[in-house]
Amino acid sequence: MIDTTQPIHDYFTDEEIRPVLEMSRRQFADARKQEYKIMDDRVQAALNNINDSDDYVKIVWRVQQENSQDKRYFDAEYLARGITNLKLFYSLEVIDGKNLHSLSKTLDVFWHAHQNFSFEYMRFCDKVFGPNQFLHHLPTDKRDRAVQEAMERRYDYTRAVLGKIYAVDETFWGSDIIICCSYDSATADGFVFWRPALMAIEPACDLYHDSLNNELKKKVNFVIDGFSALNG
């Protein structure tokens, strides 16, 4: 049968969504802390592709229709921040590609909406991360305490590196929000999405295979590659 559930507000039209995306585009462009300057054109190209993707119109109307009784998803500013924080999550795979990240249940609503459009999402991953670098969804198994604890360490790490490069929006990255999921990707070198990038190393968390753990534990702060500190 057809879903006849009435939303608490009218769904946004594509024209009404566009100002939301313009707001998000500005937020993302201004988000990175000024002490870092992008030194690699490939990194900048990937970040531009994240910010300028056409997929976000569909993500907005999808999250509205999936949450039609929640007033947050009819608030333009909240929607813009949700899209912006999804972009920040994607950007960590460019900037911090040798480490694993996790996100909250609040932000997963937006990531999940993107994955619903599987063809578009596949093209997005191919364009941003490179051929065959698909960012798979990995839900948390609540039956396994060890998995949940590992996911929590991964989430704490994600918040830490996000705060170094951008800022932590507590609405979407709060320490008290339920952790929802992470991702998986079987590549030849483990979880490596983008080699010429900034690699943050604290903490290693023992989440990786031994050789990568040992490599990470030799580092104490940042390995500067795709980014360079302006103040030296």
From TrEMBL:
Domain of life: Bacteria
Name listed for the protein in its UniProt record: Uncharacterized protein
